[in-house]
Amino acid sequence: MAPYASDDSTTAGDVDEQRSGRRKAARYVVPVTVIGVAAATIGLVPALADSGDPDLPKITAQQLIEKIAKSDVQQLSGTVKISTDLGLPNLGGLESGLLSGAAGQGGSSADPTAKLTELASGTHTLRVAADGPDRQKLSLLENAAEYSIIHNGKDVWGYDSKSNEVYHGTSSKSPEHGKDRQPPATPKDFAEEALKAVDDTTSVTVDGTAQVAGRDAYKLVVEPKQSGSTVGAISVAVDAKTGMPLKFTLTPASGGAAVIDVGFTKVDFAKPAASTFDFTPPKGAKVTEEKDVGQGSEKAPGKAPGTAFGKGGAREHAPKAGEDFGKGLDGMKTIGEGWNAIATFDTGGEGVPSGGAGGDLGGFMDSLGDKVHGKFGSGTVFSTRLVNALVTDDGKVYAGLVTKDALVKAADAGK
Asked: What mean pLDDT is reported for the chain?
């Protein structure tokens, strides 16, 4: 659907090695905090769709998931609203600086790697268009400005109207290009992540029907069977005709507003005009070429994405849940399975500095987390509404879509 999903690029080189570490960390933070829940596994519980409005033929959860898997929408245009509320602490503008720093690493405010990270918080409106695997466009609408990514054949353009900067990259032709994607931006991107693997740790039911963007849809509901997860439920509105997900909502076990709510407000499955994907840098715009940044990288950040359409997308390259969802971090292991899986690794150094030992830095870190104690010793838990992470004082990290108590228990068991 949208051309971009989670970025998996890495960098190398003496100077770039530190950047690589930061990018590697960001690469795992974004998927874990935004779509990590979708890696949880799904056990099918057949259920018939309840009668509702609209009145659609009955369908089982198994049949509906198969319908999603077979969906092969190649052409569309529409508007998507995405809201993300992870409950991240207020960093007093630091988060904006981090995003700006990421953009600076890419050499341009138009670099897609940094720009689309903004989707990890707040509410945004996107315009999307696609015409097969070689032509896609995604525009992030901002106040009096617009940011667009255009993939047309071998060319990938990023344009930031606010700064009048352009980023130009090239499309990956590798069959593994599905791994080289930006954060998800449409309901199908999220739904594909959620349906990558199935087992008996989750119940999946069909819970009636709905209308989304003027389309008749079935409602697929995914819920953990296990206790101790921070995930309450995932709801996916599936287009009755095409099988394409039109809306994705993730609610936390703690209640309240959705953590992730992304859905079409308008959608049209007609072929977009060819001119939709044309792009010429505006007069006076600063143009940054991909080859001028990320020198020596295995995959530069501007490499084009795979697409949620057609073959070779994320679904075909997705790891099964229960594997290390931080795969690629040296020494990372997984404790448990399904929704209660906890990733753990040893940083090889000291943990979070305390207020007494670390001065101002320690006090700042203490303010962001909760101090905990157990058989493992002591540590600090950093929490969002979805992902919790325990960093022990001796440098071990435990993170997952689980409660603080589950992390402490896992750390105790690791002693």
From this structure: 74
Query: How many domains does the chain divide into?
Result: 2
Tokens representing 30?
A: 């974004």
What is each CA distance from 366 to 94, 240, 324, 347, 387, in whole angstroms? 16, 49, 28, 19, 18
pTM, 2 dp: 0.73
- 294 and 369 part of one domain: no
DSSP reduced 3-state for 61: helix
At residue 367 the predicted structure's pLDDT band, cuts being 50, 70 and 90, is low
Range of the domain at 382: 347-413
Q: How far apart are CA 66 and CA 243, in angstroms?
A: 9
Q: How far is CA 156 from CA 143, 283, 305, 369, in A?
A: 24, 19, 9, 40
CA–CA distances in Å: residue 352 to residues 199, 349, 364, 373, 391:
36, 10, 10, 14, 7
* pLDDT of 274: 96
Residues 83 and 159 in one domain: yes
Write the pLDDT tens digit of every residue in 50-77.
Answer: 434 789 999 999 999 999 999 999 999 9
The helix/strand/coil state of 263 is: strand
> Using CA atoms, how far apart are residues 328 and 345, in angstroms rounded to an integer?
11
